[in-house]
Write a structure and sequence with these properties.
Elements (H helix, E strand, L loop, with lengths): L1 H10 L11 H8 L3 H13 L3 E4 L2 E4 L2 H7 L2
Antiparallel strand pairs: 1-2
Helix pairs in contact: 2-3
Length: 70
């Protein structure tokens, strides 16, 4: 997904630090609507790929996120 690709790109070599990006910023960055970004982020959280805390998106399953970015 474009969200997965963006998170991987923005996290660089330090996925443990998380990505500081709001849903609105993500939507603008990938040219999508905020509701669709929110749905996909929620699904990724439910799948255990990421979690969101204090306006940061943390990668919990790097390999799984890489698989969804194809």
């Amino acid at each position: 997904s474009r969200i997965a690709k963006t998170l991987l790109m923005k996290s660089g070599n330090h996925p443990e630090k998380g990505v500081a990006m709001s849903r609105e910023e993500m939507a603008g960055f990938i040219n999508a609507t905020r509701p669709s970004v929110s749905r996909e982020i929620s699904a990724m959280e439910k799948d255990g790929l990421i979690h969101v805390n204090d306006h940061r998106i943390y990668i919990d399953d790097l390999e799984g996120l890489e698989d969804t970015s194809d």
